[in-house]
């Protein structure tokens, strides 16, 4: 680990303390599943705010699925890296196939995590969008677009660690994905993988996300 956190919960507590200093009113904390919800649960606790999710899915290159050529989010939100798609000569039918698969997964994941519960109302409220880190900004961008479309007064992107270049691009985003404010204690360059900045960065499964939402009063109890 290079200058980071013991685990996601510690990262959330530190992030929560920073956000508490801003004395934001009418806050809803929104975590990105899966790992971002664990961070967000601690942020919501620190702010005394409700916890919800926004489900996003990365669109990975057909030949390198770990590399994002775009992302999708609830509400029909879609963002593509057209330069990357052209550079790797991704055909329209290949893109469509990846998006169809990820759209189906997104719908199933949303139904599972919400358990039939309606999304937290955001009209006129401050949405604090939380993930466990930002490497490229692809998923953060569509998440911010999704919550902005739901009538928020203000969107704050809060992450424990991020690539400085990705945050700069997010701040200047002209597609509706720019947050009004970014809170990030560790913005670094060069960056590498998010997990590098956590001593413990174990995979998070859906059951853990459901439990975190239920404990915060924002999900279905099982």
From TrEMBL:
Lineage: Bacteria, Bacillati, Actinomycetota, Actinomycetes, Micrococcales
Annotated GO MF terms: glycosyltransferase activity
InterPro entries tied to this protein: PRTase-like, PRTase_dom
All residue ranges annotated as the Phosphoribosyltransferase domain in the record: 10-165
The protein's name in its UniProt record: Phosphoribosyltransferase family protein
Keywords assigned: Glycosyltransferase, Transferase
């Amino acid at each position: 680990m290079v200058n980071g956190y013991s685990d996601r919960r510690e990262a959330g507590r530190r992030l929560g303390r920073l956000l508490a200093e801003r004395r934001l009113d009418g806050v809803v904390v929104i975590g990105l599943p899966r790992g971002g919800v664990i961070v967000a649960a601690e942020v919501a606790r620190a702010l005394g705010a409700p916890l919800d999710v926004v489900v996003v899915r990365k669109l990975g290159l057909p030949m390198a699925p770990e590399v994002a050529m775009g992302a999708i989010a609830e509400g029909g939100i879609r963002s593509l890296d057209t330069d990357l798609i052209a550079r790797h000569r991704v055909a329209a039918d290949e893109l469509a196939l990846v998006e169809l698969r990820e759209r189906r997964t997104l719908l199933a994941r949303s139904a599972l995590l919400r358990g039939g519960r309606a999304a937290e109302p955001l009209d006129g409220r401050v949405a604090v969008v939380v993930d466990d880190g930002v490497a490229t900004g692809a998923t953060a961008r569509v998440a911010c677009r999704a919550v902005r479309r739901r009538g928020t007064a203000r969107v704050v992107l809060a992450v424990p660690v991020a690539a400085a270049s990705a945050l700069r691009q997010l701040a200047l985003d002209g597609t509706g994905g720019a947050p009004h404010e970014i809170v990030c204690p560790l913005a670094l360059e060069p960056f590498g993988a998010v997990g590098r900045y956590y001593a413990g960065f174990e995979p998070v499964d859906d059951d853990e996300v459901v439990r975190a939402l239920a404990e915060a009063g924002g999900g279905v109890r099982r």
